[in-house]
Amino acid sequence: MGTLQDWKQHKATFASIAVSPVLWLVAFFIVPLAVVWLYSFGRNVGLTEIDISGTFSNYGRALEPLYLEIFGKSVAVAALTTLICLIIGFPIALAITFAQPKWRPWMLLAIMLPFWTNLLIRTYALITVLRTEGYVNKSLGWFWEGASRLKVMVGMAPLSTWEPLPLLYNNFAVILGLVYVHLPFMVLPLYAALDRLDRSLIEASLDLGAGHFRTLTQIVAPLAAPGIISGIIITFVPALGAYLTPDLMGGPDSQMIANVIERQFKRANDWPFGAALSFLLMYATFILIALQTLRNRSAERRS
Amino acid sequence: MNRRIPIEMFRANRRSILQGIGAAAVGLSLTGALAGCGSKEDGAKIGGTGEEPKLNFYNWDTYIGETTLGDFKGVSGIDVNMSLFATNDELFAKLRAGNPGFDVIVPSNDFVERMVKADMLIPLDHAQIPNIKNVDPSFINVAYDPGRKHSLPYTWLVLGIGYRKSKVKGKPDSWKVLFDSPEYKGRIALLSEAGDMFRLYGKYLGKSVNGLTPEDLKVIEAMMIKQKPNVKAYHEDNGQDLLLSGEVDLVLEYNGDIAQIMTEDDDIDFVIPKEGSQLNSDTLCIPKGAPHPKNAHAFINYLLDAEAGKKIAETILYPTPNAAAKALMPDAYKNNPVIFPPADLLAKCEYAAYNEKLQPLYEEAFTRVRAA
After folding, report:
1. ipTM
2. Phi and psi (nearest 5°) for B244?
3. What gap in Å lies between CA A287 and CA A293, rounded to an integer?
4. Closest residue of B to A271, CA-based?
5. In this predicted structure, what is the pLDDT of residue A182?
6. What average pLDDT does range A180-190 have in this prediction?
7. Which residues of A97-112 are buried (b: 16+ CB within 10 A; e: fewer)?
């Protein structure tokens, strides 16, 4: 049997393998996406018909300040989420890399386990933890009362009554929920990059007098850069399109662009405008991924 | 109309799905799954209607009696697959591109208008639904469906203020506490449904829910933005949960939802503000392209039966338009002022008509409010 390394010499074999995934991709990804893309150049005629007239008015409306601001806010929320995920995720990935081999699978399992639970269930679980009568506020209230009683016992004035913290229905809750949901997306690529790292380079750095922090910033971080960047992208992109978390955990001003898109397809019954908004979001994502690919290519060329 | 978690509860039998559309395509889409339900199995018994004994029912969550579907099967031999939707918009979006196989749906009054306009419903054959006689006559000639050509009433409901008695001074009997006052700052939750919000603000300003103009919308939008810092959340019709869990003390919600949690918590009450409010009615309809229209008629007839209607009302605690069923209910239900509010207040409440021109304006204005 010949190798498949050069597909040009084995066109028949390659074609027979490729045909089913390509068909799948065309039927269930390209075609539906193309339909939505066409909708974005259409307008509503009556309640259920869309006339694809080639108009750009949906895009024009999507670029109005109102929607651009919501886009901007969504980008900011997603960026902050990604940053926090990176700050929390990097030490976790580092810890897994340097843990004893017998512990590693368990630590990875602990990171991935929440993935096996439905996002909706996880969000509701988080709501029961954070709400006014939730576990966090109940526990804090219990400690507060304990401290108050302790003060009375030593003859001081008691603390004022406990006011539950507003942990839910605000932007804080949205960011917390997004970080909670997206952390595995950051940890796994970071772990993959750090695991491949040549340990002798770290030893060399330490032997040559660099401190731990300097080794981390000047040796480990640059070597793990591809992992960091892919972690950033696969955290940022889904966080940008999040709609369940702001919907369920957000306050009156926590709407993100995906919530606006969802409303166009449901309440507003304006599919063309919703399609234009979603494609703007998709163009932004494509640009991001294209930039990353270009970067990778130039990095390869340099090495 | 508890819209807690939109979970699809398909009780379709897996084998029939596999036979219907082939193993490769299992679960690809609702359309596929439902088409599978419609395929005839070998030796399938034929129900009394001459159709295969199956029916696909698309309903709200917590909106049917505990034993109703089983009882119906006992009477008719027809298996009911119930799946759930969370909002009228979800229902409309799913049926808009063609009926994926539903036989009976439960849209609200304004969506009945909308779906009739879009030619999405089949006219009901009243001869097949003798239990129409059980429906309270005041629900037969309604503006949104004159003569009940396309819909029959399943429940009716009214928006008002659910509140925690121990945390609120007196009876909050004006929309002012929710819409135009910092008195309960951070302790109120409003609906996230743009149309309902604008119409109720209109009520507060002394206008008809169907008499708003684009100028009114501007005024209301400014009022909403001003009130926003006092609002804890715009809820997705799960306001009763927020109230029950102590998250907020006042909530804009439907009477039936509040009546449900009042059975769990004595400290909760409900009031229709003195300015009046908006009525809704959820109705039983048959969408175009329903695979089992005869079974659908039989099912609607069964739901309007006095005994069946009583069992439904006992579970969901919504006001029933079924006079015969209401007569069978205990006084605790019949005389409950939350479920059946006083007539003088109801007289100030109106059904909202579907308004094609204002609907997109409501939506965009509400997006602005939330972005402000």
Report:
1. 0.82
2. -65, -35
3. 10
4. B93
5. 94
6. 93
7. beeeeeebeebbeebe
